[in-house]
Structure formats: C-alpha cells, structure tokens
Design goal:
Shape: globular
Oligomer: single chain
Helix content: over 70%
Number of strands: 0
Distance between the termini: 16 Å
Length: 570
C-alpha cells in the first residue's frame, strides 16, 4: 500500500471520528442529560475507528479479513471492503438522532432513539471483533465485554438485566447472520461494509417492531404511525419475496398464468400481514388512516397530481431516448453518466417540493416505493412471467461497474439515501437534515459527476475522483442548502443554531468524503451528512472547531501525487 492510499484511508476515517469526538465533547459531558449513555457507546465507536486504522494501515491489503462463513469472491470487486463504515455508519446516524431529541423522544415507542443507539453500537462492536485478526478467544472476550458495558449503560425501561443482555446479544447475532445472508445469497452486490450497514438497519427495524408488538400501545402521533407502517410494510414485502422465491420456475418459461396467480396471492398475503400488524399495534384501521393522511388534505392531493404529471413526463422522455439510442454501439461514458444522473435530478423534482408541502405524504410514498422496488427486483431476478429479460435489458442501460452482481443495487441505494433522512426526521422541522439525501445525491453528486467527467483533469491521490468534481460538489451543495433554508418562507422554521458556517463545514466535509470513499456514495454520503447536520445545529462553536478539523484534512490530499511518491522513496 503506497502513501497516497494510506492518506486516503486516514482522512476518510477522520470524518466520522471528528463527528463522534465533537458530539461527545458537546453532549456527553455534564450538565447534559444521559452523559454516561453518550460517552460509553461513543468511546467504543472511537475505539472501533482507531482499531480499523491501525489494522488497515499496517497491512498491504484488507482482503484477508472477511466475515466468517464468507469468501473474498462474494464481495464486490475492485472496492475497499469498507469494514469501518460497516461498523460506524448506522451508529453514527443514531448518535446524531439521539443527541438531537428531547428526553421524551428518546424513550418513545419501540426501542426509542437511545435503545436503538446502544444496540447499534453493540452490533458494530461485535462486527469489528468478528472481522479482526484476533484469536477466537480474544474475540469472544472483547465481544462479551462490549456487550456487558453497553448493557449497563443502556436506557432500558422494560425487563431485568438478563433480558437486556439477551436483547443486546440477539441484536449482535441478527446483524451477523443478516450480513452473512446478504453476502452469500447476493454475491458481488455489496462490499463488507455496505452489507453490514444494511444488516444493522434491518435488524434494528425488526427489533423495534418486536418491541412495539410487545408494548402494544395505541398510536396517535403521525410520526409513530409512519414508522409502524414502514416496519410492517417491510415484513409484508419480505413475505412476498419468500412466496415468489418458493414458486419461481427453475428456468424462464415466458408468460404463464400460474406465475400471475402466485404473484397476486403473494401480494394479497403481504398486504394482509402488513395491515394486520398495523391494526394490532395501533388499534386503528390502517387503510383508513393512510387514505386520510394522503387524500385528507388539499396539499396531499396536489402532491399526488404533481407526482403523476411528473412521472408521465419522465416516462415519455425516457421512452423517446430509448427509441433514439437503439443500436449495437454502446453509449459513451458521458452519455451513461447523464442517463444515470437524470434519475438523481428526477429525485430532486419528486421529493424536495413534496417534503416542503407535506412530509407525511412523502414518508408514506418512500415506504411504498421501497416495497415496489423490492418486489419488482424479485420478479426480475426470478424471471417470473417472462419479465426478467425485458427488465434486465432496461436496467443495463443505467448500470456501471458496481452493478455486476445478481441484484442491481444502484436504484436501491438512491432511494435509501433519499428516504432514510426523511424517515428519521420527517416531522421535527430540521429541513436541512431531512433533505440531506435529496440535496447530496440529487444536486451535489450529479454536478460532481458531470463536471468531473467533462472538465476534470487534476485527480485526487489514490482515487479516480477529480478536484474539479469535488469543487462542483461543494459549491452546488452550498447553493442547494441555502435554497432549502429559504424554504422557511413556505412555513418551515430553520433551526437557529445552524448558520452559514455550519452549512459550509458540512458541505466541505461531504465533498471530501465523496472524493475519498470507495463505498457506494449513494449510501454513505446522505447518512453521514444527516449526522453532521444534526450535530452542528445546536451550537455555532462546533462549526468553528470543525473548520480547523476540515482544514487539516484538506492539507495533505492537496499535495500532488508525484510529491508523495518522492517523499515515500526518501
């Protein structure tokens, strides 16, 4: 591993480490509430990052340490395994969510923000230990010590200490098995870090739904109902996928009545399970609640009409482009990027006005879109009803080198990156945090990709990203964030502590992360930006401290690659 690669890994790790240190410094010390709860998991997270840096920089490659039960060939090729992000990404987001909530919100329905934060750190700790070079005995000892420390620091309201230990251990086992399942059943679709982060989020959603089923309180707040609808819809969608997998033919057989019947049966079963879970937990009619939430106001109806008109126009444009671009020659790299980034622009047009108008409708829309995407991809992979080939040919027009696995993940990451900040912050009024994914992916990432590909000439060390693309990312993101802050004229109050300096610090940090990370930026950047915004909205002093951190991070990567090689040879 050369010096440039080491610098890239170091500065990439500095961003989550800096956010954790700043968060603990400002919110983990008295007189803040739950100081112990902030410090213990936060210190464990910092230890995870420091161990990752020591372990990663001390070896030539990171291919030898994979999750037990998997092989190197199962992961996405030509990408860093991303073990740090597998252990840090989800806890970092929940840390930001936890410190931004009031005491009542921390201990609300289900696990609550504090409970989810502690469980995510437990999963991250055991994941890091299991993928380390330590012996089996040391791994079990460190894993048990971390689980015990988190159990003692956890904000548990129900059960005794034995139940708490079992809950933390169950979360760690669920994350481990979920990561193994994704890597083995969907080979070459994920890096280790991406699979671990998705498994963590899914495991937390399942445990939160289980806690809601156990508590079973009537829900009145729309935010709690939205989370319940999301988790119940996830269970229903998983049931649909399982049914389709069991009845899928071993080979493509074209249009078949049996496939159509089974698809209808699976959809009916999934919808029935979803509505039953919502009705059991909330005590309300889920269909009636969703209809009233979406169609009960004039704003909701106008948003639906706007979406319908926009989708019709987009479909017509894409159909025209498909007819005019048919031929044996493959599209150029610039044309392929324009096609891919057109979906990012469409996401901005779909989601940003809808959130400004009615966040509740957008929350429900994201849930429905994720269920539709999962079901459609299942139909494509399983070649049901002869649709697999047609859908595959359509998707190949927009895929790149990262979409070489069984499942095309680009559109999933785009949806998740835009949706997760809205799901976490849909009614709390912090519009910059809620639209972090939409702005970072729809505006900044699109500008960075097109500008870097067309005008980029100065490359960052050890990456294919260009300095021109990074500058376009930062400038466009600053402009987009300030335009969103202008949205307070539409009825939103921007949090007072998040000033222009905070916007600049966040945008520069995200631009550097986009240039340095080797993970899928549609997943990493939106969630990291959400955490950064949530941590910087309460105090302008944090922003000035962050200026020094970001400036130090930018010094060494700006050194030309030839100079780094000369320093290494000396």
């Amino acid at each position: 591993m050369d010096t440039a690669q080491r610098l890239r890994l170091y500065y990439e790790a500095c961003i989550p480490m800096g956010l954790l240190v700043l968060g603990m410094f400002h919110y983990g010390l008295p007189p803040f509430d739950d100081a112990t709860l902030t410090l213990v998991p936060g210190l464990l997270m910092c230890m995870i990052i420091m161990y990752y840096l020591y372990d990663r920089l001390s070896r030539e490659n990171d291919d030898s340490h994979v999750l037990p039960g998997t092989q190197t060939s199962m992961y996405r090729r030509r990408a860093d395994p991303g073990r740090m992000w597998g252990g840090v990404l989800v806890p970092l987001v929940l840390f930001a969510l936890n410190i931004g909530n009031s005491s009542d919100e921390k201990h609300n329905m289900g696990l609550g923000a504090c409970g989810a934060w502690v469980l995510s750190v437990a999963m991250a700790w055991t994941f890091t230990v299991r993928t380390s070079a330590l012996s089996s005995g040391c791994s079990w000892a460190l894993g048990g010590a971390g689980i015990l420390a988190l159990t003692l620091a956890g904000p548990w309201e129900h059960g005794n200490a034995g139940v708490h230990v079992c809950l933390v251990a169950a979360a760690a086992c669920a994350q481990h098995m979920g990561t193994q399942f994704l890597v083995r059943k969907l080979p070459r679709c994920f890096t280790l870090g991406e699979a671990a982060a998705i498994a963590q989020g899914t495991s937390l959603a399942v445990l939160d739904l289980a806690a809601r089923l156990f508590i079973r309180k009537g829900l009145v707040d729309p935010q709690h109902m939205c989370v319940l609808v999301l988790e119940a819809a996830g269970v229903g969608t998983a049931l649909i996928v399982c049914v389709l997998y069991m009845v899928a033919p071993r080979h493509s057989r074209g249009v078949c009545v049996a496939d159509t019947v089974w698809m209808c049966v699976a959809a009916g079963a999934g919808a029935g399970v979803t509505t039953s879970i919502i009705a059991f937990v909330s005590g309300t009619n889920p269909v009636r609640w969703i209809v009233l939430a979406v169609l009960g106001s004039q704003t909701g109806r106008m948003v639906l009409i706007y979406w319908l008109m926009l989708m019709l126009c987009a479909t017509a444009i894409y159909a025209w482009c498909a007819q005019t671009s048919t031929g044996p020659s493959s599209p150029s790299k610039l044309v392929l990027h324009i096609k891919r980034k057109s979906y990012h622009i469409l996401a901005v047009l779909l989601f940003a006005p809808a959130f400004i108008a009615t966040p509740l409708v957008l929350h429900i829309g994201f849930t429905l879109a994720l269920c539709v995407f999962v079901c459609a991809e299942s139909v494509r992979v399983l070649c049901l009803n002869g649709w697999g080939g047609q859908m595959t040919r359509f998707m190949q027009r927009f895929t790149d080198a990262r979409d070489v696995g069984l499942v095309v993940t680009a559109h999933f990451y785009l949806l998740i990156g835009c949706a997760v900040p809205v799901w976490l912050d849909n009614t709390r009024g912090c519009v910059e945090a809620a639209l972090a994914g939409v702005l970072a992916l729809g505006v900044a990432d699109t500008c960075a990709s097109l500008v870097g590909l067309r005008f980029g000439s100065i490359k960052w060390p050890a990456t294919v990203k260009t300095v021109e693309g990074t500058c376009a990312f930062i400038v466009s993101l600053v402009v987009a964030v300030e335009c969103v802050r202008w949205a307070k004229g539409f009825g939103y109050e921007i949090t007072p502590g998040y000033g222009v300096m905070g916007s600049l610090v966040v945008c520069v940090a995200m631009g550097v992360l986009e240039a340095l990370t080797d993970q899928n930026d549609n997943l990493v950047i939106p969630l990291t930006m959400y955490a950064a915004v949530k941590m910087l909205i309460h105090s302008d002093a944090i922003s000035w401290i962050s200026v020094v951190v970001v400036a130090a991070m930018l010094v060494m990567p700006l050194i030309p690659h030839s100079t780094l090689i000369q320093l290494r040879t000396q």
